[in-house]
């Protein structure tokens, strides 16, 4: 594997590289992906089709899941990374950069460099519409997306697009996700001496995260039993119900694209508002994120918070199961900017966002305050949502999933098709991507 040491002020040094053959057509540079084999599978497919493929590995977990030629180990600091990236782009005549999540520190710097050099950046993320979809967008996603917030834009554009048809069901395996997380973190820990400057974007040590995954797996059966009991309670409940799906505590969409510094502060805000303003016969169900790593005990925190606000009998915590099992029962959904919001809108369920979301559009989501939402959630416009969905599928969604062979196979196939559409020529109009002014400051909750 190629090494990149810390660059000198004049540029990257010690680029110990093999002699390379002339590069074909386009040359793709992968940065960090989701934990697992997704980037390796796309890289292998691109190599098969004759493209140049390179990968920067920032830690041992990246190395363990790449296992293809042209891996480049970056051992330098965040401050030296921009110069090192420029050197890589020049040396390998890179035409395209791929990454998962645009808010990781290394990726933030990479986006700045690529805008400077007018290189297209293909950003993967969890799908804006769930389940069965993955986002692949040029330039940025979520709070950094260039998608407009004008409902007329979607209605007009959708009228010229073909019917995308129904969803393809994509299976997903939590044990597989947990195993990949444990393997990635173990490889990271065991190789830290070779990556002395590496700092994870997640706010905890990988060993702690690995232990959390193992705990979640060991408690899975008890969580499923408690969830079944809760579902029976919901079925027999006669009053209105609101749903609050949790997001990952380390999710940059929470920390950078909302006023919250983490999930704990969001829980405090939502339960506090519910206690003060929700009808007395209303139930609040808080759903654990299916990929939560178990580092924090949300069940206990929610119980203590509800008790402090004197609504412990009206706040429930759902640990397992698909949120689609109960979303149709909800009078409304409160979210920061989770993709569960689009699932609710597909069911015609009112949604309010407490952060910045691509679907926070007049006519789709409640544009008022959380305190009023409990009693007057409003109603989403079905035609606007269908137009929004059609445009997303045509422009920045691909079917597939990360945590099953069927899902990965479909995802890789469609990602290659979309990458060929996202050519450097097609990128010309978006090379000067600018974060919309709408997202320059956190969204107020109250």
From TrEMBL:
What processes in GO biological process is this protein linked to? polysaccharide biosynthetic process; polysaccharide transport
Give the highest taxon in the source lineage.
Bacteria
A single Pfam family, by name?
A: Capsule_synth
Q: Which InterPro entries match?
A: Capsule_polysaccharide_synth (IPR007833)
Protein name listed in UniProt: Capsular polysaccharide export protein
- Give the species this sequence originates from: Swaminathania salitolerans
Its taxonomic path starts at: Bacteria, Pseudomonadati, Pseudomonadota, Alphaproteobacteria, Acetobacterales
């Amino acid at each position: 594997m190629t090494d990149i040491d810390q660059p000198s002020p004049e540029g990257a040094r010690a680029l110990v590289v093999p002699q390379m053959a002339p590069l074909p057509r386009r040359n793709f540079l992968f940065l960090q992906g989701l934990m697992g084999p997704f980037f390796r599978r796309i890289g292998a497919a691109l190599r098969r089709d004759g493209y140049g493929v390179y990968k920067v590995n920032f830690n041992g977990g990246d190395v363990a899941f790449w296992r293809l030629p042209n891996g480049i180990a970056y051992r330098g600091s965040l401050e030296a990374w921009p110069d090192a990236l420029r050197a890589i782009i020049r040396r390998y005549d890179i035409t395209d950069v791929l990454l998962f999540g645009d808010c990781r520190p290394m990726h933030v710097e990479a986006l700045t460099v690529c805008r400077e050099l007018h290189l297209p950046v293909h950003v993967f993320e969890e799908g804006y519409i769930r389940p069965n979809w993955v986002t692949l967008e040029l330039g940025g996603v979520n709070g950094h997306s260039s998608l407009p917030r004008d409902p007329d834009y979607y209605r007009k554009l959708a009228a010229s697009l073909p019917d995308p048809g129904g969803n393809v069901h994509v299976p997903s395996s939590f044990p597989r996700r947990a195993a990949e997380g444990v393997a990635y973190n173990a490889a990271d820990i065991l190789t830290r001496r070779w990556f002395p400057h590496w700092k994870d974007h997640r706010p905890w040590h990988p060993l702690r995260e690995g232990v959390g995954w193992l705990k979640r797996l060991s408690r899975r059966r008890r969580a499923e039993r408690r969830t079944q009991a809760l579902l029976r309670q919901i079925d027999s409940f006669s009053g209105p119900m609101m749903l609050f799906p949790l997001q990952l505590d380390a999710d940059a969409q929470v920390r950078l694209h909302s006023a919250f510094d983490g999930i704990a502060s969001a829980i405090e805000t939502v339960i506090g508002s519910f206690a003060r303003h929700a009808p007395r016969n209303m139930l609040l169900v808080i759903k654990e994120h299916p990929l939560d790593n178990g580092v924090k005990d949300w069940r206990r925190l929610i119980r203590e918070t509800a008790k402090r606000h004197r609504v412990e009998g009206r706040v429930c915590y759902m640990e397992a199961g698909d949120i689609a099992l109960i979303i149709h029962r909800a009078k409304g959904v409160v979210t920061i900017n989770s993709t569960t919001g689009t699932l609710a809108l597909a069911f015609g369920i009112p949604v309010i966002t407490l952060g910045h979301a691509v679907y926070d559009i007049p006519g789709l989501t409640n544009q008022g305050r959380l305190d009023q939402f409990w009693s007057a959630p409003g109603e989403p416009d079905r035609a606007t949502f269908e137009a929004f969905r059609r445009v997303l599928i045509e422009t920045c969604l691909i079917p597939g999933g990360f945590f099953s062979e069927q899902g990965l196979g479909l995802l890789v196939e469609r990602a290659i098709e979309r990458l060929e559409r996202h050519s450097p020529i097609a990128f010309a109009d978006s090379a000067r991507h600018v974060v919309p002014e709408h997202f320059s400051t956190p969204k107020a909750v109250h």
